[in-house]
């Protein structure tokens, strides 16, 4: 058995050490990781993938801790991915999250991992999706992805979720922050956290008004607005119920299958793009030949680009640098 096959097998058996090793390979984009995740993807597709986003400090991590505890009471296993690209700069943010989630940290039915991949365009989304696939294949019943809803890269990460939860907190100004950040459109469930704070009712009412005034497509999921106090666990049971309802709605509406199609096509595109880009660059013999041909007027850039793609059609998996 190859090393990749045995590592995949261990993940499928739910081996915590193996899951950790695969997630590290994903984050580092280690050689062979695409094959590994592709193999795991064949056994994925069971987990409910829940994305939790919202402004920094709104209580996402605190809520994720509470939600996880509730799901554990229901006997479900949980994988948590905390996506935090800023932590590479700020340092301790992730550790703080871990401590806040520590109520569930020692539980073998809970796997927590932070991702701080920055670097390449789409690197964050890719590491997130591959990590979700790994935890799903490892048999986690629920995979929760937490990411701060500030930049486009973080919002993009949410496309890997089946149910998107947007956490708001009582505003300091007039606006609900979620609206400013463009999170309104992607929410399947809204929650106004810190309901122990004055001003929470106002935020709640604003959000509800906003949602009611948005045009509703017939048969669409009616996006609920919930209240919570992350620090006491108030509202967590209701949130978990809404997630289950949304999942049921997705199943009936064909949404899970659409999600699977989307994840598969996204990965095919990423891998194909990478295979192509690896070969379409100076130093690759066919590429250099095309450049010389254009220079010597033996063709134009467009036709030679097409010729290169045809040549790439005979991909045999060989690395051109070998
Ligand atoms: N008063 C109050 N504080 C909360 C509540 N939920 C979270 N917090 C606090 O808000 C701060 C930020 O919480 P955290 O979960 O790290 O937010 P995140 O950045 O969205 O993950 C922490 O000090 C929490 O203890 C809540 O419902 N009420
Ligand atoms: Mg957090």
Question: What can you tell me about this protein's structure?
Answer:
With 322 residues, the protein is α/β, with parallel strands linked by helices. The chain has a domain of 211 residues: P-loop containing nucleotide triphosphate hydrolases (Rossmann fold, 3-Layer(aba) Sandwich), CATH 3.40.50. 52% of the residues lie in helices and 12% in strands. It contains 15 helices and seven strands. It has a seven-stranded parallel β-sheet, with helices on both faces. Helix 10 links the parallel strand 5 and strand 6. The radius of gyration is 22 Å and the shape is globular. Magnesium ion binds next to helix 4.
What labels would you give this structure?
binds magnesium ion; binds guanosine-5'-diphosphate; 7 strands; single chain; alpha/beta; 7-stranded parallel beta sheet; Rossmann fold
Which quaternary structure do these chains form?
single chain
| Count of distinct strands | 7
Largest sheet: 7 strands, parallel
Poorly predicted ranges: none
Beta-strand content bin: 5-15%
Number of continuous helical runs: 15
CATH class of the domain at 43-253: Alpha Beta
Mean pLDDT: 87
Helix residue percentage? 40-55%
CATH homologous superfamily heading of the domain at 43-253:
P-loop containing nucleotide triphosphate hydrolases
Measured distance between first and last alpha carbons: 25 Å
- Give the structural class: alpha/beta
């Amino acid at each position: 058995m190859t090393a990749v096959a045995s590592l995949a097998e261990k993940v499928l058996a739910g081996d915590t050490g193996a899951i950790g090793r695969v997630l590290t390979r994903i984050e580092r984009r280690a050689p062979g990781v695409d094959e590994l995740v592709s193999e795991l993807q064949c056994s994925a597709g069971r987990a409910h993938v829940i994305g939790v986003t919202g402004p920094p400090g709104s209580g996402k991590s605190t809520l994720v801790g509470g939600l996880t505890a509730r799901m554990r009471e229901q006997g479900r296993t949980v994988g948590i991915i905390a996506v935090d690209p800023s932590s590479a700069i700020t340092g301790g943010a992730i550790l703080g999250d871990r401590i806040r989630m520590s109520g569930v940290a020692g539980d073998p039915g809970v796997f927590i991992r932070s991702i701080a991949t920055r670097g390449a365009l789409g690197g964050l989304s890719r590491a997130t999706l591959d990590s979700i696939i790994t935890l799903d294949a490892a048999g986690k019943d629920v995979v929760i992805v937490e990411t701060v809803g500030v930049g486009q890269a973080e919002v993009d990460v949410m496309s890997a979720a089946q149910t998107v939860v947007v956490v708001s907190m009582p505003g300091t100004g007039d606006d609900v922050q979620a609206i400013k950040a463009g999170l309104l459109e992607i929410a399947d469930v809204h929650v106004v956290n810190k309901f122990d704070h004055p001003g929470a009712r106002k935020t709640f009412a604003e959000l509800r008004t906003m949602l009611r005034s948005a045009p509703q497509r017939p048969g669409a999921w009616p996006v609920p607005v919930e209240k919570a106090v992350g620090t006491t666990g108030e509202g967590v049971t209701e949130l978990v119920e809404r997630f289950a309802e949304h999942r049921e709605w997705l199943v009936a509406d064909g949404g899970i299958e659409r999600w699977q199609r989307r994840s598969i096509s996204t990965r095919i595109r990423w891998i194909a793009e990478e295979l192509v880009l690896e070969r379409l660059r100076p130093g690759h013999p066919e590429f250099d030949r095309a450049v010389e041909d254009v220079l010597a007027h033996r063709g134009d850039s467009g036709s030679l680009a097409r010729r290169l793609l045809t040549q790439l059609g005979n991909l045999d998996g060989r690395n051109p640098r070998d």
